[in-house]
Every structure is written in structure tokens, then in C-alpha cells.
Amino acid sequence: MTTRTDGAPRRSDATRAAILEAARERFAADGYEKATIRAIARDAGIDPSMVMRYYGNKEGLFAAASEFDLRLPALGALPGRHAGPVLVAHFLDRWEQDDVLTALLKAAVTNPAAAERARAIFREQLGSVAAGLSPDPADAPRRAALVASQILGMAMARYVLRLPPAVDMTREEVIAWLGPTVQRYLTEEAP
Asked: 16 is in which domain, residue-wise?
């Protein structure tokens, strides 16, 4: 947060923070398509022109609001055979604790800007995990895409579409089913 010369936070920083908090909540509750700049501004207690001033448009605001760290666990310290289950457990925790991640997934299905944001998050953050565990680092992007297919597929089935068999599975069952597949994608030799 930028501060004035007297040490107090600048009002614009507080306004930006209020806008981002309101945007995250609104995108999570309504999804990208239904969320409006006016509703976000109302939630933040400001004029809609301020949202436009700081973020330009709805896509710019969504990109800023969906900027987050997946907080991937440090898998290098684990025995290689445990990386898959640990990663699946981590993502289950994230999906269940972060409505913004679910909103991003929903929006990515229909909105090109949201899809690019999701691709960037997974490419940058999951790609480095795959590179660190892959027997061939050059194959890391492909491996990261395969891991994402499992993680995002389960998230779509469990948290967006709410398919009863996916919703009814316990956390342990999801980890038991997906963990070995994610493990194989990360660490086994390519076919």
C-alpha cells in the first residue's frame, strides 16, 4: 500500500482495495457475465466512474480481481510418489475455500479474457511444479496441461455442475481416485 509522506495510506489505495474486494465477492456470487460495474461500485460504496478510472473496464477489473496465488505446496521436499495426492488435496482445499477460483472457472468457459486469465495462472504456477517433478523438464507444459485437465475437470464436475456422484465423493475418495493419475502425469516416463 502506498503511503503519503506523513505515513498514512493514500485514499486511492483504500479505494482500489474496496473495489477489488467488492469485485471478488460480486464475481463469485453472480459470475462474470451477470456482475456489473454498477453493482460492484455500489458494494464498494463508490461511484461507478471510479471503477472505470482504476480498471478501465469489466475485463480489466476481472483480471485484477482474479489475480491470485494458487499457493501450491512445496512438493520438492516430498518423496516423489506423494506429489499427486498432495496436489489433489491442495486443490480441493482451494476450491472449497475460495469462491473467486470457482468464479474464474465459470467465467473462463464463456469469456475469452477470463479464459486467458485462467490459462496464465495455471501455466505460470502449475507449469513450474511440473518442471520440477518431470523426468524431462521440456515435457513440463504438456504434463501441467494433463494435471490441469484432471484438477479443472473435477472442479467443474464437483463445484460448478455439481454432478451428484462427484459431489457425493468424500475428500479422501477424490484424492484416492485422482492422486495416482496426477502423480503419473507429473513423474512417470512419457508413453
From this structure: 11-65
Planar angle of CA 166, 65, 23, nearest 5 degrees: 90
pLDDT 10s per residue in the chain (191 long)?
444 345 544 578 899 999 998 998 888 788 788 899 999 999 999 999 999 999 999 988 988 887 767 777 776 655 566 889 999 999 999 888 877 778 778 888 887 878 888 888 888 888 888 888 888 989 999 999 999 999 999 999 999 899 999 999 999 999 999 999 999 999 999 88
First vs last Cα of the chain: how many Å apart? 49
Under 8 Å CB-to-CB from 97, ≥6 apart: which residues?
none
Instruction: Let me know: does 93 contact 107? Beta carbons within 8 Å.
Output: no
Statement to judge: residues 47 and 134 lie in one domain: no
Q: Is the separation of the CB atoms in 62 and 107 below 8 Å?
A: yes
